[in-house]
Structures are given as structure tokens and as C-alpha cells.
Amino acid sequence: MKLTGSCITDGANVVLYWPEFLSPDFDRQMQEGDGISPILRLQEKGRIIWFNCEGDGDYSSAFFIDEALPEELQTFCEEWETIERLEVAAEGYFCGMEYMTADRSKVQRELPHFYNRVPVPAGIYHATVYD
């Protein structure tokens, strides 16, 4: 299965995340400036994919679920990170890190063009991230 996502970031970092994994006080922590600690905890637990884009702007990605990277793309891709255990819950969101929130209705109401829903089936995956 191939899924795609596109988003905008003003903070040079893009993520694929699942709101179910965010702590109840995640939004408060992000607003008060301790945004990196909860992100690092999610990454450590294998509950987020963090793409450091090194620049603001529009980004897109393709997600190949239970299938290899197509041969015609391999020439253009360099392996960036391997995630041995990636935990996926319900519907994921591909967005700029600064737009992460546990409140899905806020994202859908206020920022619909800043993120994409990515419906990866729930489960445990091995992920390879390419640049």
C-alpha cells in the first residue's frame, strides 16, 4: 500500500504522529516552550517519525506500507534512519512539528491545509526513512 502526505512547516521539522500517543498536557508543554522533550520521548518510544527538513516550506512524502521502496526511486534515495519498532495507532497526521496537537478538532477546524491525514493501519512496524 502506498500513502502520500503533504504539509507546510515554519519550523523546519516535519512529523508523522498519532494523537493517541500524546500526553494530556502535550499542548500546554508545546505552548510553554518545552516542545522538544515530549517529541524526544515519542521518538524514543517509536511513536513518531521526525523528519528534520533543514528549512521552512512545503514538504511531501510517500509511505510504502508492507512493500519495498520501488526500484525506480532507489536511485534517488539515501537511507536516513531505521526505526526498528514503530508503533502506529489509528489515523496519523503528517504536519510541521509546530502544528502537532492532541486536539484533532482544532487541526481540522483551524489548520486543515497545514497537515495531511495518513491512514496507516494500526500495528507495530519496522520503518526505513529515506531522504
* Strands side by side in the biggest sheet: 3-2-6-7
H/E topology pattern: EEHHEEHEEHEE
How confident overall, as mean pLDDT? 88
Report the sheet-strand fraction. Answer: 35-45%
Total beta-strand segments: 8
Describe the structure.
Helix content is 20%, strand content 40%. With 131 residues, the chain is α+β, with helices and mostly antiparallel strands. Strands 3-2-6-7 form a four-stranded antiparallel β-sheet, with helices on one face. The protein has a two-stranded antiparallel ribbon with strand order 1-4. The longest helix is centred in the first third of the chain and has 9 residues, at 36-44. The chain starts with a strand and ends with a strand.
Topology:
Elements: E1 2-9, E2 13-17, H1 26-31, H2 36-44, E3 48-52, E4 57-64, H3 71-74, E5 79-88, E6 92-96, H4 104-110, E7 115-118, E8 123-130
Antiparallel strand pairs: 1-4, 2-3, 2-6, 5-8, 6-7
Features:
131 residues, alpha+beta, 20% helix, 40% strand
Summarize the structure.
The chain is an alpha+beta fold. The protein is built from four helices and eight strands; from the N terminus they run ββααββαββαββ.
